[in-house]
Design goal:
The chain contains 18 helices and eight strands. The protein is α/β, with parallel strands linked by helices and about 425 residues long. The protein has four domains: about 110 residues, no CATH class; about 60 residues, no CATH class; about 180 residues, Nucleotidyltransferase, domain 5 (2-Layer Sandwich); about 70 residues. Helix 4 crosses helix 6, helix 10 runs antiparallel to helix 11 and helix 11 runs antiparallel to helix 12. The longest helix has 27 residues. It is elongated and about 100 Å long.
């Protein structure tokens, strides 16, 4: 019977035993040493499976041993040097050990860098964030804890996440509501983003795109991206915007001129009050709130028109501003949605909250090099914000929104058919 004539090159049990004797001095060193020893044992097992026992004469070997090599493996505290056996095939090709390949694929240090930068740890403090300065495991040269190394990991992983996210299929999302808003990064750089709400009330960051201004062309590019990824333009949905005319223009061009669009009531009230003297703020705010709380859209419109007439003498410019976009301000009332659901869908608070996370994540950036950098950071921040999303408060009433959108679409389809027939006659 054939058997091995020597012991394995590494005895993990002995390494662990030695580390255990020192555990009183350093538990961190014990955990690290035990992990390295376990990985070494797994690699020896892989080598034995591919080459047979050391110096054995077994038939059917897939490869043969070719000495040992040192490599660096990343974990949350930096890179460590690990020695591994090399295996080659009979055709002189290298065979990757499955355990080593899996350990390298984890990329814990890169993921740690991405996570820390998303919670506002600067690249200069990355080394301190992953290892205590007084820790027992020393930081060696090439450990991958420098600010440039952390930056490279963030660039690579954030670009990978952005590419995967912007190409993901959204046809499986039963979206009833889409909110669109922009954020100014620099003077000539604006990012426009979209968030969707599905029939269960769950919120989903959908896409982001860059442009020089928040114009119709940029918004159109965003909508085209959503359609390419599976958003059905034939389904009636409620769009919520902050009042920018470019958003409304692109939405109606893509989804039809009868698409229901709700203009943010919070933005509208803020814009009106900022142009009025302080003594009028309380009365105007109360009048607007009274109109928006009504269940009858016609009564709400009359209240707002009466408010505009009262302000014609004292603030004629504001009176015109109140009436601007009046139909879009009352969309959720015209759809006859329940009061609680109206309050959730009458403003852009959901996407504004996400934009707040984007500003927090990006506050350590001192200089934006280009649009791709801004898009990477914004995409990473939007995905970070999604981790804290909660279900819509009035999610149990979303069935009423689905029924209202279906009735809205049916009504305007019938009106269009009648108009077409009359024109043909």
């Amino acid at each position: 019977m054939e058997k091995s004539t020597t012991e394995a090159g590494i005895v993990p049990a002995a390494i662990v035993e030695e580390a255990w004797q020192q555990v009183g001095a350093s538990f961190e060193r014990f955990c690290l040493t035990a992990g390295i020893a376990t990985l070494a044992g797994m690699m020896e097992t892989d080598a034995a499976r591919l080459c047979g026992t050391r110096y054995g004469r077994d038939d059917g070997k897939h490869g043969y041993r070719w000495g040992r090599a040192k490599g660096k493996l990343g974990f949350h505290g930096g890179k460590i040097e690990v020695e591994r056996p090399r295996v080659r095939t009979r055709a002189d090709g290298e065979i990757a050990l499955p355990s080593w390949k899996a350990a390298m694929a984890e990329d814990w240090l890169g993921k740690w860098a991405l996570n820390l930068m998303l919670i506002n740890v600067s690249t200069r403090k990355f080394g301190r964030a992953v290892r205590l300065p007084e820790g027992d495991v020393p930081v060696e040269s090439g450990a991958g804890l420098s600010k440039s190394a952390a930056s490279r990991w963030f660039v690579a992983l954030s670009a990978e996440c952005m590419t995967e996210w912007m190409a993901s299929d959204i046809s499986g999302l039963d979206l009833l509501v889409i909110q669109i808003d922009g954020i100014h990064i620099e003077e000539d750089l604006v990012l426009v983003a979209a968030v969707g709400i599905d029939s269960l009330g769950d919120k989903h960051p959908l896409a982001a795109t860059e442009g020089a201004t928040e114009n119709a062309t940029v918004v159109q590019a965003l909508l085209d991206n959503l359609i390419e990824r599976g958003l059905d333009p034939g389904v009636c949905r409620l769009f919520i915007v902050d009042g920018a005319k470019a958003l409304t223009k692109a939405i109606r061009k893509t989804f039809g001129r009868h698409t229901p669009i709700q203009r943010c009531q919070v933005h509208k009230a803020r814009n009106i009050l900022e142009r009025l003297p302080k003594p009028l703020h309380a009365s105007v705010r109360a009048a607007l709130r009274q109109a928006w709380e009504l269940d009858d859209a016609d009564k709400a419109e009359r209240l707002i028109r009466n408010l505009a007439r009262r302000l014609e003498q004292r603030a004629p410019g504001v009176a015109g501003s109140i009436l601007e976009g009046l139909d879009e301000i009352l969309t959720v009332i015209r759809l006859r949605l329940p009061a609680e659901l109206r309050r959730s869908l009458a403003c852009t608070n959901i996407i504004e909250n996400m934009m707040g996370t984007v500003r927090r994540v990006c506050r350590n950036v001192k200089r934006w090099r280009d649009a791709s950098m801004a898009l990477r950071w914004t995409s990473a921040a939007m995905l970070e914000a999604a981790k804290g999303f909660r279900r819509l408060k009035a999610h149990k009433q979303l069935s009423a929104l689905r029924a209202a959108l279906a009735a809205h679409q049916t009504k305007h389809a019938a009106d269009s058919a009648i108009a077409t027939a009359a024109k043909a006659a």
